[in-house]
């Protein structure tokens, strides 16, 4: 009888130690918060293909924050990335003014914003491997011109564990009519309804 009680005591102690170990690991595995601030090397571009030329608009005025656990891609994530629409530059001052005033209406809708909800399609990858590219989709909502839609950008990301930085590239398309943006026309040129968006930024501690 004493031997049986002794075995039960040992098991109880072992289970208690295991539980404490799990709690300790969980306490250490806290999500990180990284920030994105305006300026290089961050870059947002949109590409419009017209019959006579391809127009590319650019800005480095992007800011935001990401909350994630680099050691667990299945863990909850959050964050948002915001772009100052009035800073988009197509290398043509007249066209830029026309675009901001008559199409993007930046006085009324100064920012566009992607709000991150979760990561999907990680290809079975469980975590970010230091210095190696990870590919997945970022599910979230995109606010532009006062309209919000759910989107899933394709993402390429590289985690630098030494610096604690995450380099991100994301790609998606925007249909102008989905966001109530009047389709621009300049003389005989009419832009495509679909705009290709590319996002590149580095999130830092």
Topology diagram in text:
Blueprint: H1 2-28, E1 32-36, E2 43-49, E3 54-59, E4 62-68, E5 78-84, H2 93-104, E6 111-120, E7 133-144, E8 147-151, E9 154-160, E10 165-175, E11 185-186, E12 189-190, E13 194-203
Antiparallel strand pairs: 1-4, 2-3, 2-13, 4-5, 5-6, 6-7, 7-8, 7-9, 9-10, 10-13, 11-12
Report on this structure.
With 205 residues, the protein is an alpha+beta fold. The protein has 2 domains: 1-29; 31-203, Lipocalin (Beta Barrel). It contains 2 helices and 13 strands. Strands 1, 2, 3, 4, 5, 6, 7, 8, 9, 10 and 13 form an 11-stranded antiparallel sheet that branches. It is elongated, with a radius of gyration of 23 Å. 20% of the residues are buried.
């Amino acid at each position: 009888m004493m031997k049986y009680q002794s075995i039960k005591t040992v098991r109880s102690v072992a289970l208690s130690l295991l539980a404490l170990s799990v709690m300790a690991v969980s306490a250490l595995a806290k999500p990180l918060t990284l920030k994105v601030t305006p300026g290089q090397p961050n870059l947002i571009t949109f590409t419009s293909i017209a019959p006579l030329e391809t127009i590319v608009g650019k800005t480095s005025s992007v800011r935001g924050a990401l909350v994630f656990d680099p050691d667990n891609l299945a863990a909850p994530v959050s964050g948002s990335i915001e772009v100052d629409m009035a800073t988009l530059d197509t290398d043509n001052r007249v066209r830029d003014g026309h675009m901001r005033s008559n199409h993007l209406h930046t006085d009324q809708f100064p920012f566009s914003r992607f709000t991150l909800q979760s990561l999907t399609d990680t290809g079975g990858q469980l975590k970010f491997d230091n210095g190696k590219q990870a590919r997945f989709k970022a599910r979230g909502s995109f606010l532009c011109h006062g309209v919000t839609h759910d989107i899933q950008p394709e993402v390429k990301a590289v985690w630098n564990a030494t610096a604690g930085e995450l380099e991100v590239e994301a790609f998606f398309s925007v249909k102008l009519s989905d966001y109530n943006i009047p389709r621009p026309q300049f003389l005989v040129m009419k832009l495509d309804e679909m705009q290709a968006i590319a996002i590149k930024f580095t999130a830092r501690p």
